Amino acid sequence: MNVVASIFPIYLITKLFVSNVTYLVPPNVNIHTYEPTLQDILKVKNANYFVGAGYIINPWERKITLLSNAKYIDLSKGANLIFINGEVDPHYWNSPKEVLYIYKRVLKNYFPNETGYKNIKSLDKLFENTFKTCKIKVFITTHPAWRYLARDYHLKQITLSQENYISPLELANIERAIKKYHIKAILAIPKYYSKLAEYLSKKYHLKIYYVNPCIFGNKTTTYIDVMRYNIKVFAKAMECEVKGK
Ligand SMILES: [Zn+2]
């Protein structure tokens, strides 16, 4: 059986349940702007399954399904999607709880895997138990990739805009939140440079920590490894005790 996943986060999720999977869009690129080449599209031609983030997130996935006989599996159908001003927030893969739903509602029908299910279930427990202990329940991030995580584990995400312009009102709100919630760190993402993060970090002595929104890694990277790394970083930033492995 030959399975192709559209983008790296979808690859990581699929690989929890099926071993013979490859990706179209490689890791370490901007998944929000990258479109596959004709070469990539040809890879799907002989696949049995093509696993995607959903047409709603990657319209180019539709083009591929039209050119291939592979059965299309849309993971967004399993997630509890969040819409902001009528637009879907794509980052559902950054919440283990959503991945658990995706398995139960979608992937289980194609790739039932008891071990994979147990692994994602215990990861969800690790996140639940750890986030319950946090002294700070609010985090600041330079890329808003964690809205699903925040909703599913009762946290609050504050986003620094990536543009160089920020309105005085927006800046005042962020500075007020830093003081109110005693925020100690900013969660940054390599390659998404933020001038504002640098400014706030200096002014309020905030540490800058790096998280991985399931886009950095290589072929051998696993979802569990990425998320175990992330929970340790979140725990440092929000003063939580990592509960479990
Ligand atoms: Zn993103």
Task: Please characterize this protein's 3D structure.
With about 240 residues, the chain is of the alpha/beta class. Helices cover about 40% and strands about 15% of the residues. A four-stranded parallel beta sheet has the order 2-1-3-4, with helices on one face. It has a four-stranded parallel beta sheet with strand order 8-7-9-10, sandwiched between helices. Strand 1, helix 1 (about 10-15) and strand 2 form a beta-alpha-beta unit. The protein starts with a strand and ends in a 7-residue tail after the last helix. Bound molecules: zinc ion.
Short description:
The chain is α/β, with parallel strands linked by helices and 245 residues long. Helix 4 runs antiparallel to helix 5 and helix 5 runs parallel beside helix 9. It is globular, with a radius of gyration of 19 Å.
Features:
245 residues; alpha/beta; single chain; 9 helices; globular; binds zinc ion; Rossmann fold; 4-stranded parallel sheet; 10 strands
Please write the string of helix (H) and strand (E) elements.
Answer: EHEHEHEEEHHEHEHEHEH
What is the mean predicted local confidence, pLDDT? 94
Shape: globular
Ends distance: 32 Å
Unreliable segments of 5+ consecutive residues: none
C-alpha Rg (nearest Å): 19 Å
The share of residues in extended strands comes to 5-15%
Main sheet attributes: strand count, strand direction, barrel closure? 4 strands, parallel
In the CATH hierarchy, the architecture of the largest domain is 3-Layer(aba) Sandwich
Structural class: alpha/beta
CATH topology of the largest domain: Rossmann fold
Percent helix: 40-55%
Q: Can you count the helices?
A: 9
Q: Class of the largest domain, according to the CATH hierarchy?
A: Alpha Beta
Number of strands: 10
Sheet with the most strands: spatial strand order: 2-1-3-4
Estimate nothing, just give the exact number of structural domains: 2
Bound molecules: zinc ion
- The CATH H-level homologous superfamily of the largest domain: Nitrogenase molybdenum iron protein domain
